[in-house]
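User: I'm preparing a small set of examples for a lab meeting where we compare how different chains pack in three dimensions. I only have the primary sequence for this one, and I'd like the structure in token form so I can line it up with the others. Please keep the answer compact; I'll paste it straight into my notes.
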Amino acid sequence: MLALLASALASLSAGAGERDVVPPDAVTLRLVIERHRFTPEILHAPAGKMVVIELENRDDTPEEFESRRLRKEFGLRGHQSGRFVIKPHPAGRYEFVGEFHAQTAHGALIIE
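Assistant: Understood. Below is the structure token output for the 112-residue chain.
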């Protein structure tokens, strides 16, 4: 079961650039998963800009960044890094969770 989950997560973790062209004015933000928590919990980005999230999972277990409002899911196995693109959004607060540890892994992207 765990092998199947890891395989599914690997297929989700395609890097930015494979499907998205990232413009030079894109904003790059770093997000770390450690002890089943996101650090930092709050990210900030300007409205109307594409955002690249560089995600590093320092835990032994898989985790998935999920935001329904951003329409984004991105999974990583333990001790894996990857990056994904969030298309430009209007100003607002966009919550996200770690699907496998939603009680502790949560945060928000604030677009201003």
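A couple of notes for your slides: The helical segments are 2-12. The longest strand covers residues 27-34.

User: Perfect, thanks.
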